[in-house]
Amino acid sequence: MALPSSKILQYTGMINGIRTGLLIMVLGCLIFIPAALTRSYLLFLIGLFIVGTGLTLLQTAINPYITLIGPSSSAAQRISIMGICNKFAGIIAPFILSAIILSNADALMEELSSLAPAAKQLRLDALAHDVIVPYAILAAILLLVSFGIKYARLPEVNTTAIGNADEGQLDLNNADTSKGGQMLRGFLAIFCAVGVEVVAGDTISNYGIYNGISLDIAKSLTSSHWQECWLGIFLE
Question: Are both 176 and 153 inside the same structural domain?
Answer without folding.
Answer: no
